[in-house]
UniProtKB/TrEMBL annotation:
Protein name in the entry: LPXTG-motif cell wall anchor domain-containing protein
Source lineage: Bacteria, Bacillati, Actinomycetota, Actinomycetes, Kitasatosporales
Entry keywords, A to Z: Membrane, Signal, Transmembrane, Transmembrane helix
Species: Streptomyces indiaensis
Signal peptide annotation: 1-24
UniProt keyword Membrane present: yes
Length: 236
């Protein structure tokens, strides 16, 4: 094979490798789901519907899972001062995995007026896959602790998954533990780093970067061959 043909073949192989890595990016599907909560409070039963959004961020062998409420739930007959209310929740795992993931978050950063729907801060936890395949994440029980009382809100409308991920089991499997920033890991939790882009783009970007690295490696090989070819000609 001539020098030019070898160079073209090397460049083509690098480009194809980069494309294959990009197309192999894991699939993530997220949607906002209305959840009908029935809450058991110290002053009686209450109900509220809130759209729930669950997003994922790839982190090492696992994912940072963040659960968001778009509307307030329950209420208090008295004002809740700053830092008086602490929320936590569970997320039910389905599909290739099972069990629950615990998510937690900070206390309220501002006072909540009496008889006003309580806005829940974003709750997070870290999920490390124990099995490979498609895993679903569905809103579970919400727990609100305030002024020495506990309110438990349970979904009653059998909500569908807010997030679906195609995952690969981490080597060694997952273990339970605490996640940074107050997040608590349920099924397969670990302690990873920061928060990059959420949703399906995060995996595509990471793998796209890997594909770019493959292309750079191919280009470096082409440059080396070019210099070697020139050196050989010069020595003749």
């Amino acid at each position: 094979m001539s020098y030019r043909k070898r160079t073209a073949a090397l460049a083509s192989a690098a480009a194809l490798a980069g494309s294959a890595v990009w197309m192999a990016a894991p699939v993530a599907r997220a949607e906002v789901v209305d959840v009908n909560y029935q809450c058991k409070t110290p002053i009686g039963d209450k109900s509220a519907v809130s759209p729930i959004d669950i997003k994922s961020t790839k982190r090492g062998d696992g994912y940072r899972i963040t659960m968001s409420w778009q509307k307030g739930v329950s209420s208090s007959p008295v004002e809740l001062g700053k830092g008086a209310m602490t929320p936590s929740a569970t997320i039910a795992l389905g599909g290739a995995d099972s069990g629950t993931l615990s998510v937690t978050g900070p206390a309220n950063d501002a006072a909540i007026p009496a008889n006003t729907p309580i806005k829940i801060s974003d709750l997070s936890g870290t999920y490390v896959p124990k099995k490979s395949g498609e895993v679903t994440f569905t809103a579970g029980v919400l727990t609100i602790k305030a002024l020495g009382t506990t309110t438990t809100c349970t979904p009653t409308n059998d909500p569908g998954p807010s997030l679906t991920l195609d995952v690969t089991a981490a080597s060694g499997g997952g273990t339970s533990g605490s996640a940074p920033g107050g997040g608590s890991g349920g099924s397969g939790a670990d302690t990873g780093g920061g928060l990059p882009q959420t949703g399906p783009e995060d995996s595509a970007i990471a793998l796209g970067t890997l594909g770019g690295t493959v292309l750079l490696a191919g280009a470096a090989g082409t440059l080396w061959l070019t210099r070697r070819h020139r050196a050989t000609q010069a020595g003749r």
